[in-house]
User: Fold these one by one.
Assistant:
Number 1:
Amino acid sequence: MPTSSKKEKLIEGVLPESKAHELLYKMVLTRAFEENAEEMYGLGKVHGTMHLSIGEEGVAAGAGPALRPSDYLLNTHRGHGHFLMWGGDLNRMMAEFMGKEAGYCRGRGGSMHIADVESNNLGAQGIVAGNLPISVGVGLSIQMRKTDQVVLTLFGDGAANEGAFHESLNMASIWNLPVIYLCENNQYAMSMAFERAFRVEQVSERAAAYGMKGLTVDGNDVIAVYKAVSEAAEQARKGAGPTLIEAITYRWKGHSKSDRQLYRTREEVKKWMEKDPIKRFAAKLDVDEAGLKEIEKKAKEEIRKAVEFADNSPEPDVNTILEGIYA
């Protein structure tokens, strides 16, 4: 059959409708993944700790898809959604979470150190702001190789008060490196409220100190994040240097599994839950409640199959425990 010459509808003039629906599904899949991970943790199937991104799916949905497959990702410890949006395979992710040989890091990385170097996903960091200095090295590599790649570096508002933040942004600026610094401001660094830790109203205001562009967007608005990251990438590819983007969002769950959440009220959490990025994006795509439930049903079935895959995957051989360790 001949293909139609009719142009595809663009959501808010920037995102193709088919791509938008794909992202909506991945947002729902991300939340289902996180909810399942929390359940498995309670059952003792996931060890260590984990940092859930429920409520922050809009940032991941807007950021990763705005870049090219040839670009680089430096993830944060709360980065499961970003990993999925970067094209992560659900089965291998689940296997990694459960410490299985079939996982991305052969079960050795787990939640906070999962990586897929083959897809330029350079991994998550358990150290707050630990990926920021690495972004300078990646950006310098891009510049020296004279490619038009960029590196997306993710971190939270707590990391913006680490020395590594200031040193990294300063160096990226003076060297004019193609780095996009994306701060997911979810209002709390562990239990420290943003307004208690900053004298500026927005993290993005700090960009002025380094002579780079800075802007703040609604992190629960997928299109707003998509536009900001797309524009920052375009500028970086032209040689205009780094950009600092702050995405305002909120984590519905605690900082980690040990967090009793005594520092915030239920009313505050409820208020932010009413700004659910999934429901907001679904409304933009004219997906009603019944349609969203069908998407959720499909996502949960995909999660179930991934858990089954991981359950049936082999445990790492103890004789290989030192493989991949360097000193």
Number 2:
Amino acid sequence: MKTYFIGIDISKDTLDVCILTDFNEKEITFKVENTLEGIEQMLCSNFQEDGQLRYCFENTGNYGLLLASILEDRQILYYQVSALEIKLSQGIQRGKNDKVDAQRIAKYIKIYSGELKPSVLPEKVLFAMKNLLTYRNLLIKVRTQFKNEKKAFYQAGKIADVSYEMDEIALHIQQLNHKISLIEERIQEQISKEEKINRNFEKITKVKGIGFLTATYMIVLTNNFTSFKNPRKFNCYAGLAPFEHTSGTSIKGKTKTSKLRNKRIKTILFNGANSAVIYDEELKAYYKRKKEQGKAHNSIINAVCCKLVYRIFAVVKREEPFVNLTRYNLHMS
């Protein structure tokens, strides 16, 4: 049976489609609207009648949701891949437009479809949590801007009357604090809706250094611990896993983490690790020992982040709450 590899470049308004086959036939390219009607037009094309289909498109956030939802409803395999992964897989490239991007995506799925796991949309609860976190981030950014401006007006207040501006900024910050609290309450409501999510949330928040925000991000980013097989893979994704940087005898660089990372979860885990080395006796002893060995603070905290991720995955996998083993005199390496 013939296999069709369909690469789709998604934009807000349109879908550029490129179709390749495993028989190296002439490629087919066309464009449809990124609407229900446009997607139906693409799915009703004649090429679908006599072969297996492999759809692939970049992870473009909300712009690809309609397409993914329709494909899932029709039980058609599809693969959502990061744009960077596709770019790095194809070497040096020249030129860029929507049609060319669709061709590159089709070539990617033709080569790698055997190695990829088909994508699925997150559960409704996880999707709602993700959107609430996105909105919370937006409010946090706006609040930070107001706080920075408050400092600037404070300096201006040394030579002019800026009381009106200061009061307005203070009011906005107060309102934003209230909105952020309401969003966090809504996130907690979503967590409570699903038993599996709530159970994992309760377990991982018992790990010292893992609070409400860290736990929520871990659940959302791992699709409630179904998207990552082990903590090592998640540490790579978050940019926590160190990699060797050597070549022969001439290049002996420092072992370091990759710049290809999820910056937000790394920052959140770093905050948790800084707290954990204060309140967790085992991690506090580990930090002190590494510091005495001359290790840099950030290097130690990065290692603590890795340990926290391993603890989180362990309690989820074992279906058991976290138990601090310090009292049993177990020392970490």
